[in-house]
Every structure is written in structure tokens, then in C-alpha cells.
Amino acid sequence: MVSLMGLGAADWLELGAYLLLYSLTGSGRFRIDGAKLRAEFVVPHAQQRNLFFGVNFELGFNARHWEPTRNSGEIRPIIGGRIGSVDLIVNPILDTSFQGLGALDFAPASRVAYNFAESWAASLEHYSDYGRLKHLEPLSRQQQVLFAVIDYKGEPVSFEFGIGYGFRCVDPQVDSVARFLSRCSVRVDLSGAAH
């Protein structure tokens, strides 16, 4: 589960913090995974445009069981288009462990959403991890996850909930039941400004 606190500093900038990233263990206990700081720059009034773009920067502070490095970062370009009630978004993401350019990881994501009301959308979201840019992993070691997601965008609180399936899993210890994933995030806009 993710709790995102966001502050709309301008119509093109949102500052935020993911507080207490946590997961549920197989024994039913919650485990804190880390926290992240975020700065998202987008073209002004993106929600009113047919083509929109931006970039999101994240700095993560991780528990050892979550990621092998205590600090990590993400550069998430945002390239999107809107056709009527349908949004198409591509994110060619680069992850970093701050161990040099050779350690940059290519983890693209994409989203197709149908906005069935002003505040509600249903989407399919695909997340992948192809490995380090300098040496992409073979198909058998790449990670692929597909989520079905429902979104509510309100002010000051928004939320999303998704159920996903991991098609590829690097860890042979993980059984097929663990390939089914869920996620829930809650966003609170501290400024009250629309984005």
C-alpha cells in the first residue's frame, strides 16, 4: 500500500512524498518497505490536452528486504495521448541505484484507461523490468506485471486499487499464488489545487 501526500506547487509542478510503502507478508503481517520523495513536472493543464507530456523524479529510501540498495531513484518520462474518453500513456522509466551509468535499469510502464465519468476511470497498466541498459536480461529473466485498476480522482483525496498478475518471476522460490498482486494507493492533495 502506498500513501502519497502531494502539493500542487504550480499547474505544472507537483511535489510529493510516498509515506510508508508497505506490503503484507505471507503470514499476514505488514512490513514497512521504505519511503519516497517525488517531483513531477507536466505540461500545464495536461488533463485538458489531447497530447501531454512530463517527467517524474523520485528518490527512494529502502528497507534491505525491499531493494538491495538503501537509496534508489527513478526518472519517469510521461508521454500521453487522449482520444475521447480513452487515455494512452507510456513511461520509458530508468531506475538507478546511484552506482554509475552502467547500473541504470530500464523498467518501462504503460497504461490504457477508459474515463467512464469525470472522476472515475478503469485501466489496464503494464509494468516491466528488462534489466540494466548496458545488458538487457533474456526474456526468461524479465519481469512483467499487468494490473486491472480502478481510479477515483477527487479533491482533496484520490485513490486507486488494482489487482495484478506477474507473468514472469525472477525468483524461483515464488509460487504461482504469489504472482497475483494487489495494490492500493491513496493521494491527498495538500494544496487543494486541481492538476
Provide the descriptors you would attach to this structure in a database record.
195 residues; mainly beta; Porin; 11-stranded mixed β-barrel
Explain what you see.
With 195 residues, this protein is mostly beta strands. It has one domain (2-189): Porin, CATH 2.40.160. Helix content is 0%, strand content 63%. The chain contains no helices and 15 strands. It has strands spanning 2-10, 13-24, 30-42, 51-62, 71-83, 86-91, 94-96, 105-106, 109-114, 120-129, 131-132, 135-136, 143-152, 157-168, 180-189. It has an eleven-stranded mixed barrel. It is globular, with a radius of gyration of 17 Å. 10% of the residues are buried.
| Mean pLDDT across every amino acid position | 84
CATH architecture call: Beta Barrel
Q: Write down the secondary-structure element order.
A: EEEEEEEEEEEEEEE
CA distance, first residue to last residue:
23 Å
β-strand amount: over 45%
Helix content: under 10%
Sheet with most strands? 11 strands, mixed, barrel
What is the CATH fold-level name? Answer: Porin
Overall morphology = globular
Number of helices: 0
Given helix and strand content, the structural type is mainly beta
Number of strands: 15
The first-level CATH class name: Mainly Beta
Q: Determine the oligomeric state from the structure.
A: single chain
Chart the SSEs and their pairings.
Layout: E1 2-10, E2 13-24, E3 30-42, E4 51-62, E5 71-83, E6 86-91, E7 94-96, E8 105-106, E9 109-114, E10 120-129, E11 131-132, E12 135-136, E13 143-152, E14 157-168, E15 180-189
